[in-house]
Automatic annotation (TrEMBL):
SUPFAM superfamilies tied to this protein: Actin-like ATPase domain (SSF53067)
Matches recorded under PANTHER family: SUGAR KINASE, XYLULOSE KINASE
GO biological process: D-xylose metabolic process
CDD domains registered for this protein in UniProt: ASKHA_NBD_FGGY_BaXK-like (cd07809)
GO molecular function, one term: kinase activity
Name this polypeptide is given: Sugar (Pentulose or hexulose) kinase
Length: 548
């Protein structure tokens, strides 16, 4: 979605957002009204190397440069000039994972992404030590697992960061993170707005027992709240973004954030009792808390908004990739019949068919587990489609079961929040899955038992969200005290029309039946993991509409 204009925009009044998702690197340039002026994207895929999901740093920069170049080409086509500057820049990326560097800035081991589930021992010990849930994908779990495994690179570690933090430091030279992204590295104290001092002390003690003198806190990036000064684009950084040399240095950057934080911004869900669901390669829900959770639970992470407010996060490793793979099969079948179709058209037809299916999915069952799923237990993925001989198999039932499968694990996590008394006024949905109007939105409302809103940014995603955060930082620099929630409510979403879908009673009952079958059938998934070895040639996953 881009706006048309008769004259070139004042680039000093724009904000550039770059987000590195799991299947797509996107760039989005917005104007003073926060509407997109130009966009660019670059597809990429993770690789399974030595049993761990990773991306190479070469692929990071090829993708960033490709997305920014595509955006620049769109600006040039429309206005006859190549961008030489922007008003501000923001970088966002998939949260968590492990990027460890030595003092010279060299990567010590391949980037370990959020998708890896090899950190169970570390996560369990840290959760018990801290008295708080530490998920498998958090950076501190990856680091402590490396300590438990006595990995040879440990003596050389000088810094640890996330993917957004790595890109930001390469552009500015500053080792910082936005608080939302930092909350997936190590627990944040909502009072101080930085790493929890008590838990850091506990970590220091358990690490000292294994590696005396190893000072974890010195490895971590500085934590910044939304709106803070996070540095300026250096000459080297400008060359990284634009190897042609057209882009000039000196542009201000906002704190780098994670995709969860940019999702909250993109859906105006940073206030208490609001939340959002992001669906792509993974699927996760974020709910801004009124009060602390009653108890810790392995299905719930406590992270923060970009402004530092506590958020309950239900993160599922597996989202729409399996649904997307089936859409690809149907697209190939249509082409084989002599009717090739655009992938979006195939996806829309499949989703539309789902509305005609039985509320409970017709007795069918789908697991979208391409990777391990910590909430339900399997440490590896085996995508499955299961039915009994007396179930009904047609396109409508199949499609509904597959969409329900996307939401299954998420619904189990949301049930935990409901049991803890967490109330939600509305959930906002975004990601490519929601571009087909009214389908996934309606079925998600049934799955979580709450109204689901979708607005104009449903398909824009985090690149737009981090561009808004960059614009917000520029506004704070000029105007001083300005809260993020007020900025979003008054200047970004004040006139945005939202389509809100209430849970349908029949859909809610039907999904409840499906979810009971889904929980019971988890034994099938576990048996498949135990019985079926992963194909050795499998090194990548199918791309998914909308990315993580």
């Amino acid at each position: 979605m881009t706006q048309r204009a008769d004259s070139p925009p004042d680039l000093t009044e724009t904000a550039l957002g770059i987000e590195l998702g799991s299947t797509n690197i996107k760039a989005c340039l917005i104007g003073p009204d926060n509407a997109p002026i130009a966009t660019g994207s670059h597809l990429w895929e993770n690789e399974l190397v030595d049993g761990l999901w990773t991306y190479s740093l070469e692929a990071v920069w090829a993708g960033v440069q490709g997305a920014v170049a595509a955006l620049g080409e769109e600006v040039e086509r429309r206005y006859g000039t190549r961008p030489t500057t922007f008003g501000s820049i923001g970088v966002s990326a998939m949260m968590h994972g492990y990027l460890a560097f030595d003092a010279a800035g060299e990567l010590l081991v391949p980037f370990r992404t959020w998708r890896n589930t090899n950190t169970a021992a570390a996560a369990a010990e840290l959760s018990q030590t801290f008295g708080a849930n530490i998920p498998l994908r958090w950076s501190v779990a990856h680091l402590y697992q490396a300590i438990l495994d006595d990995e040879p690179h440990l003596p050389r570690i000088a810094s640890l960061t996330t993917l957004a933090g790595y890109v930001h430091r390469a552009l500015t030279g500053r080792h910082v993170l936005g608080v939302g992204d930092a909350s997936g590295v190590f627990p944040i104290d909502p009072v101080t707005g930085t790493y929890d001092a008590r838990m850091l002390g506990s970590l220091r003690d358990v690490v000292a027992a294994r590696r005396p003198g190893f000072e974890v806190e010195h490895l971590l990036p500085e934590v910044l709240l939304a709106g803070a000064d996070a540095g300026r684009l250096s000459e080297a950084g400008a060359a990284l973004l634009d190897p042609s040399g057209t882009l000039r240095p000196g542009i201000a950057l906002c704190p780098p954030e994670g995709d969860a934080g940019t999702g909250m911004v993109a859906t105006d869900s940073v206030a208490r009792r609001t939340g959002n669901v992001s669906a792509g390669t993974s699927i996760f829900a974020m709910v801004v808390l009124e009060e602390p959770l009653v108890t810790s639970h392995h299905a719930i992470d406590v992270v923060t908004t970009p402004a530092g407010d506590p958020v309950a996060m239900v993160h599922c490793n597996n989202g729409a990739s399996e649904l997307n793979a089936w859409a690809g099969v149907f697209g190939e079948f249509a082409a084989a019949l002599g009717h090739p179709s655009d992938p979006d058209a195939v996806f829309e037809a499949l989703l539309t068919a789902a509305l005609k299916g039985s509320p409970d999915g017709g007795g069918l069952l789908a697991y979208n587990y391409l990777a391990g799923e910590p909430i339900t237990g399997p440490d590896e993925g085996r995508p499955l489609f299961v039915r009994t001989p007396d179930s009904r198999l047609d396109l409508a039932e199949f499609a509904r079961a597959q969409v329900y499968g996307v939401f299954g694990t998420l619904a189990l996590g949301m049930r935990v929040l409901a049991e803890q008394g967490v109330e939600i006024d509305a959930m906002f949905a975004h990601g490519g899955l929601f571009r087909t109007a009214g389908v996934a939105q309606r079925l998600l409302a049934a799955a979580i038992g709450a109204p689901v809103a979708v607005g104009r940014t449903a398909g824009e995603g985090g690149a737009w969200g981090i561009a808004v955060l960059a614009a917000y930082a520029r506004a704070v620099a000029v105007e001083g005290d300005l809260t993020l929630s007020a900025y979003l409510a008054e200047r970004v979403f004040g006139d945005v029309d939202l389509e809100v879908v209430e849970p349908d009673e029949a859909d809610v009952a039907g999904f409840g039946t499906y979810l009971e079958r889904y929980e019971t059938g988890l034994d099938i998934e576990r048996a498949a993991v135990a019985s079926l070895a992963r194909c050795p040639e499998t090194s990548t996953e199918p791309s998914t509409r909308g990315g993580r």
